[in-house]
Every structure is written in C-alpha cells, then in structure tokens.
C-alpha cells in the first residue's frame, strides 16, 4: 500500500480521519507507524497529501491530513478486454488501474467460457476492491471507468463509439502485418482478446469499427503481460 486511500466516512473532523479494519492493519503491520509518523494519503476522487498520526490503539488510528496535491493524470488510453479467467481478472484490473488506464470494458468473446460470467469475481464489490488496490499501489485517487459488455456485437456496434470517443483504435493480434506503434498521439483504445485469441468474425467486427490489427512480436503473451507491454509501448 503506497497510498492510504481515504473515504468521506473516515473523517471525524474537517482535517482528521479515523481508520479501522484492513487499512489500519496494513499500516500497523507493514508501515509500523507510531504517533508523529507521516503517511501518504489521498481522498478517493480527490486530492492527495500527507497524514500525520495523532493517536492509535489496537483497533484504530487517527491522523491529521493535509490534502494539497493533485492525483497523477490518467493515460489517454481505453482498454477493451475479453473477459479473462476469473483467477486472472483480479490481477488484470488492479494492474490496468495502477498503470493509469482511463477506462476499461470487459466484453464477451467466442473463446470466453460461459462459466466465467457467473464467477463471484464479477460481483461489484470485488471489481471495486481490485480497482482500489490498483490505486493504492500507484498512488492515485481517481477510479477508472469500468463497463461490462456481456454481448460482444452490441457493445462493438452500438456502444463503442460513444464509450471510446475519438482516437486511434488498435487490435492486438499475434501475426498481424503491422507492428504495434510506439506512442499513441491523441490517445485511443486497445482491444486485447481472450487466451485463445479473437475469432475471425470478431476481428472483422472490430476492423469495421475502425480497429487496426497490430503485432507485439513472435511470442504469445498472457493477458496481463500483453497489457503491460502495450501500455509501455504506447504510453
């Protein structure tokens, strides 16, 4: 936890917060703070700053906080992601958030197993938890926008333009004729398929929606590895 995220309900006074539960346990066990120590803090959706420990006991911690710094800017990048396996989904969401991706859409694909959509990993509480973990990791306070597109074609043909806005559209696909560009002037959206890849009909739908197929090289990458490689190359 590189940033202690604060929520409105944590405030017991205008500039004083009280933490309990997971965050207090982490601060106590990992940071090993004492009275007078300082921690990096940030209000969810707002500014960041410093919190100084003023009181603590076995159950809670109180800090005086000064929030006077803006959060880091988001990347000018949106991500269309075929729903990964449930055990991978948490890592991908937290990683994309920590990298600064502005918005994400989880969509269906032919090679996404139907059972994935019934996983408890897709419960709103879990999705939010992973995004918060990504913010804590990267010292950010602004949640990325997360959309669910259970049906592939309606999302691509009816919702994509309004969701993604203007900018370059790239479809990551092994063996594509075009090498993935370096840099993404003006921002854009990247589509990453399931482990087995997009089928031809899905690729054609994405091409009709303005996506260019690009290749990252001869190696077949896991979803989370491809995500990091694409963000590093484009942004």
Explain the overall architecture.
This protein is α/β, with parallel strands linked by helices and 235 residues long. It folds into two domains: 4-69, Hypothetical PUA domain-like, domain 1 (Ribosomal Protein L25, Chain P); 77-234, 3-Layer(aba) Sandwich (Alpha/beta knot), CATH 3.40.1280.10. 31% of the residues lie in helices and 28% in strands. It has helices at residues 21-31, 86-99, 124-138, 152-164, 200-208, 223-234, and strands spanning 4-6, 11-13, 16-19, 38-43, 48-56, 61-69, 77-82, 103-107, 145-149, 168-172, 178-179, 188-192, 212-215. The protein has a seven-stranded parallel beta sheet with strand order 9-8-7-12-10-13-11, with helices on both faces. A six-stranded mixed beta sheet has the order 1-4-5-6-3-2. β2 and β3 form a beta hairpin. α2 runs parallel beside α3 (124-138) and α2 (86-99) packs parallel to α6. The protein starts with a strand and ends with a helix.
Describe the secondary-structure layout:
Layout: E1 4-6, E2 11-13, E3 16-19, H1 21-31, E4 38-43, E5 48-56, E6 61-69, E7 77-82, H2 86-99, E8 103-107, H3 124-138, E9 145-149, H4 152-164, E10 168-172, E11 178-179, E12 188-192, H5 200-208, E13 212-215, H6 223-234
Parallel strand pairs: 1-4, 7-8, 7-12, 8-9, 10-12, 10-13, 11-13
Antiparallel strand pairs: 2-3, 3-6, 4-5, 5-6
Question: Summary?
Answer:
It is built from 6 helices and 13 strands. The chain is an alpha/beta fold.
């Amino acid at each position: 936890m590189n940033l202690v995220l604060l929520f409105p309900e944590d405030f017991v006074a205008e500039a004083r917060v009280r933490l309990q539960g997971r965050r207090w346990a982490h601060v106590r066990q990992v940071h090993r703070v004492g009275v007078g120590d300082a921690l990096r803090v940030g209000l969810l959706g707002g500014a960041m700053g410093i919190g100084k420990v003023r009181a603590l006991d076995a159950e809670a911690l109180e800090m005086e906080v000064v929030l006077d710094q803006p959060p880091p800017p988001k990347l000018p990048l949106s991500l269309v992601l075929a729903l990964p396996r449930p055990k991978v989904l948490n890592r991908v969401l937290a990683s994309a958030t920590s990298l600064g991706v502005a918005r994400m859409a989880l969509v269906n694909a032919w090679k996404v197993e139907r059972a994935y959509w019934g996983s408890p990993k897709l419960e709103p509480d879990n999705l939010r938890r992973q995004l918060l973990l990504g913010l804590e990791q990267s010292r950010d306070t602004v949640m990325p926008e997360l959309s669910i597109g259970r049906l592939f074609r309606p999302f691509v043909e009816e919702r994509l333009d309004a969701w993604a806005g203007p900018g370059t559209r790239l479809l990551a696909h092994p063996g594509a004729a075009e090498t993935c560009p370096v840099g993404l002037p003006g921002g854009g959206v990247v589509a990453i398929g399931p482990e087995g890849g997009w089928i031809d009909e899905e690729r054609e739908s994405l091409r009709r929606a303005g996506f260019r197929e690009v290749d990252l090289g001869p190696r077949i990458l896991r979803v989370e590895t491809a995500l990091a490689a694409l963000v590093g190359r484009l942004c």
